[in-house]
């Protein structure tokens, strides 16, 4: 009888722990990002100065988490045309969106990734070094829908692996 009781307690503890871990990963660590009064939530890096500059946007929704710098996801719309964007801001050759939690339904990484791969969507450097080793990437579709996420850059990968930084990387602070 004691063995069955002990086994039941172990199974129940594992079940509660599993449910708690699932909830924390999918819902618990994410916070909604409030829209900035300065209207600078969506920025792209200028070709000329290589500095980020706010662009025109509406319908901004974003989530983020303090537990990881790459959990940021955002959705928005912009009225800026593709020719204006490509002539003014820094394009990226390759960008790969990260999955968002299912409940943040405006951000579909598969759809964004397919649009980027086919050349339908344009990828831009939003802001370099949002925090050390992390860049913000922005993708914009022809219909004006835009998406942003954070990605580990080359220097960040080296630094986070604990390897010595090459000369072209900024010092880790």
Compact summary:
The chain is α+β, with helices and mostly antiparallel strands. The chain has helices at 2-28, 82-88, 109-118, 154-160, and strands at residues 31-32, 43-45, 52-54, 58-64, 73-77, 122-131, 134-140, 145-152.
Radius of gyration: 20 Å
Q: Secondary-structure element sequence?
A: HEEEEEHHEEEH
Structural class: alpha+beta
Distance between the termini: 58 Å
Strand sequence of the main sheet, in spatial order? Answer: 1-4-5-8-7-6
Envelope shape: globular
- Uncertain runs: none
Helix content: 25-40%
> What's the helix count?
4
The major beta sheet can be summarized as:
6 strands, antiparallel
Overall average pLDDT: 91
Amount of beta strand: 25-35%
Number of domains: 2
Number of strands: 8
Task: Itemize the secondary structure elements and their pairings.
Layout: H1 2-28, E1 31-32, E2 43-45, E3 52-54, E4 58-64, E5 73-77, H2 82-88, H3 109-118, E6 122-131, E7 134-140, E8 145-152, H4 154-160
Antiparallel strand pairs: 1-4, 2-3, 4-5, 5-8, 6-7, 7-8
